[in-house]
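Hey,
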Amino acid sequence: MNRVGEIEKVLEKMYPDAYCELNYRHDYELLLAVMLSAQTTDKRVNQVTKVLFQKYNTLEKLKQAPIEDIESIIESIGTYHKKAIFVKEIATKIVDDYQGVMPKSRKELEKFPGVGRKTINVVLGELGIEPNIAVDTHVERVSKRLGLAKENDSVLEVEKKLKRKLKRDDWVKRHHQLIFFGRYHCKAISPGCSCCELKETCNFHKKIENNSWGRKGQCLK
């Protein structure tokens, strides 16, 4: 079995039911949640969106919401001043330019403030509009450690390499599995190398094995 096949086999074994951990009820809530998730955790985003989406439960209400109130609700996440503006501007744009219906095309979503390629990839993939792989910090770290991409590859280069190596029909599933693997096992600090089934082909494991300063994390059951 080649390296890619071995990685896929382990991901299937460890996280067969990996999924998007952001909570949402409407497509625009997913868009806002993914935008808010930059530089913070899904857990923290879910905490603030629970309050935000309950208080302002329509796009019209979000459009009319005072920036100061949005800021007070999301202040526990990174760059909340800027993100509060994005929340209001996105809601306003959907209401004013798209009659309250979030557009489903990449070209249109690119026009929204605070919405980049990663966010669009997540939204289009999660909503089943088109298969995609979104490269966040977890996917980037894991891909480089496992040799699916090179250490100096850009985020876009990592995405392109993953899409070439993985079957298109599996992109969304593999995206979620790579996130789970990076979030709960192959962590940035103290990864679970001691019990990892992929350690023999892992570039990071080889590096810490060859350096006395290397630190291996504990296997979490």
